[in-house]
Recover the amino acids of this structure.
């Protein structure tokens, strides 16, 4: 299936997505940004057919079938709501919304209007992650006992920057945290029923770094460490009774290492390509539109992650 896509936003990730469309010989139907000069330049750079001057123009165009929303996440809810109400399928950059209540509202609206709403979480669309998940389900790691995830950068402190500005949905949780918690939840067999989290705040009041411990009824635990002020490797390790799998650069990884306890050997696992990460999102999204029954696993994943977010916030409130 190929569709008429419009990209909403002209930031870094929008350019990455447009590059992927071009590389895979896929046409981009339209682009919108509030900055007309950026729209015109974006269209020229990537051969976009239509340059939209307003969101109303985007959503009133019957030829627009799907929108990729790549604007700051504090704008996601309003834009997605308009798109869904106009019958457009929505692929939205992470974090898909600011909270669980907004997510629930958009999901209900998408169901009412018979359209697909999906978070562009690269990890769950990567062929390597799917392969590792299948290996776990096949019992190759034995019983899963623990998952560790680290993800951190050093962002120059600027109260006006989206990372630290509460008005822009700032904080580590909705930036790196969504990767870390999604990574842990994806490889756990069931939703955690016990969540403990510890947070440090930036001067603006947003969450600057957090360490979170998850545990579920299957006896699986996870520890997720994310920070805006401490460089950490983007690494995820799944440990079981038969060995462990380490996935460096886990959000878009194409290779991993599998250590086997019995043979004391390490095996390399490869699948997919990092450079095609965003294209895998597109392919999965279009396959779900063709067969909507395929959305349930992705929906459950996103719902579970945002439930964990709410539990983390409860832990944080108890620290004050």
């Amino acid at each position: 299936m190929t569709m008429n896509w419009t990209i909403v936003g002209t930031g870094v990730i929008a350019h990455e997505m447009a590059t992927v469309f071009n590389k895979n010989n896929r046409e981009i139907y339209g682009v919108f940004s509030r900055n007309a000069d950026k729209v015109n330049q974006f269209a020229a750079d990537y051969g976009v057919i239509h340059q939209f001057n307003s969101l109303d123009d985007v959503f009133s165009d019957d030829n627009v079938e799907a929108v990729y929303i790549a604007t700051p996440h504090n704008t996601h809810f309003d834009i997605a709501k308009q798109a869904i109400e106009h019958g457009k399928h929505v692929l939205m950059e992470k974090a898909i919304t600011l909270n669980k209540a907004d997510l629930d509202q958009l999901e209900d609206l998408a169901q009412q209007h018979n359209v697909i709403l999906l978070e562009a979480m690269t990890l769950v669309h990567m062929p390597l992650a799917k392969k590792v998940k299948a290996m776990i389900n096949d019992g190759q790691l034995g019983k899963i006992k623990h998952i560790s995830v680290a993800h951190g950068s050093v962002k120059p402190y600027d109260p006006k920057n989206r990372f630290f500005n509460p008005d822009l949905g700032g904080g580590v949780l909705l930036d790196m945290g969504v990767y870390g918690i999604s990574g842990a939840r994806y490889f756990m067999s069931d939703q955690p029923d016990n969540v403990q989290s510890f947070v440090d705040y930036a001067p603006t009041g947003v969450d600057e770094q957090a360490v979170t411990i998850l545990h579920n009824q299957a006896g699986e635990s996870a520890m997720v460490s994310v920070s805006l002020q401490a460089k950490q490797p983007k690494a995820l390790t799944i440990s079981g009774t038969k060995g462990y799998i380490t996935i460096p650069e886990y959000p878009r990884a194409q290779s991993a290492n599998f250590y086997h306890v019995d043979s004391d050997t390490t095996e390399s696992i490869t699948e997919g390509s990092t450079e095609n990460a965003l294209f895998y999102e597109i392919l999965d999204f279009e396959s779900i539109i063709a067969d909507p029954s395929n959305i349930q696993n992705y929906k459950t994943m996103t719902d579970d992650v945002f439930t964990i977010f709410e539990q983390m916030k409860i832990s944080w409130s108890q620290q004050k």
Remarks:
- DSSP finds ten helices and 14 strands in the chain.
- The longest helix spans residues 295-319.
